Amino acid sequence: MHTLDRVLLGARIRKRREELLISKKHLAEMLDITPKFLDDVESGARGVSLNNLMLLSQILKVSTDFLLFGSEQIVSDQVFSHIIENCPAKKREALADILQKIIDSYVE
């Protein structure tokens, strides 16, 4: 059974935010919280609401499990969704062909 460690949660949020080059101020604005509150979250002094946990997961492109418990799976369906959403319509067919070739070539 997992237990929640707010210090580790905050450290994972900070590390991932920095990996994505998102400023503390900008992330706070996206979450509609103050930079001071975000600082408290990143230091482990405060927790986050479920709504902000879900938003953090989307913004930081990681699973909520990763944020909460540090599971190693960083790539989520959200990453693929983001790539597809940002792909120009004219290139989506080529993207689908490439993905299908990768899937077809993978041998379990």
SSE blueprint and pairings:
Blueprint lengths: L5 H14 L4 H8 L3 H9 L6 H11 L3 H6 L7 H9 L3 H17 L3
Helix pairs in contact: 1-3, 2-3
Notes on the structure:
Helix 1 (6-19) packs across helix 3 (35-43) and helix 2 crosses helix 3 (35-43). The protein has 7 helices and no strands. The model has no long low-confidence stretch (mean pLDDT 88). The chain has 108 residues and is mainly α. It is elongated and about 45 Å long. The chain has helices at residues 6-19, 24-31, 35-43, 50-60, 64-69, 77-85, 89-105. The chain folds into 2 domains: 6-74, Orthogonal Bundle (434 Repressor (Amino-terminal Domain)), CATH 1.10.260.40; 76-108, no CATH class. The two termini are 30 Å apart.
Q: Under the CATH scheme, which architecture of the largest domain would be assigned?
A: Orthogonal Bundle
Helix count, per DSSP?
Answer: 7
Compute the number of strand runs: 0
Largest sheet: none
CATH top level of the largest domain is Mainly Alpha
Structural class determined from secondary elements? mainly alpha
**Roughly how many Å apart are the termini?**
30 Å
Quick one: overall form?
elongated
Instruction: Catalogue the unreliable spans.
Output: none
Give the number of domains. Answer: 2
CATH topology of the largest domain: 434 Repressor (Amino-terminal Domain)
The CATH homologous superfamily name of the largest domain equals lambda repressor-like DNA-binding domains
What amount of the residues lies in strands?
A: under 5%
Give the helix proportion (percent range).
55-70%
The average pLDDT score comes to 88
Query: Which sequence of SSEs, written as H and E, runs from N to C?
Result: HHHHHHH
* Rg, nearest Å: 17 Å
